[in-house]
Specification:
Length: 71
């Protein structure tokens, strides 16, 4: 079988469900893509914070982290 966890791949189905539920088409066409992009940005932010947090645990990365904070 085929499956995906990408919100962009499931967006057409989500938009169709929103219209079937009774939401105005213009609202669905605005909010669903907006939510997809916000979700994508949130994942990117999470990855950056996770790498930074992990790097803080390593003993030799102090100088690199100090430089990154000053940028």
């Amino acid at each position: 079988g085929f499956s995906t966890s990408s919100s962009a791949a499931t967006m057409p189905v989500t938009m169709e469900c929103g219209e079937e539920y009774g939401c105005d088409r213009s609202i669905v066409q605005f909010l669903i893509p907006l939510g997809t992009n916000i979700n994508r940005d949130g994942a990117a932010l999470y990855e950056a914070v996770a790498v930074y947090s992990y790097a803080r645990c390593l003993p030799r990365t102090h100088k690199i982290l100090k430089y990154a904070k000053n940028c």
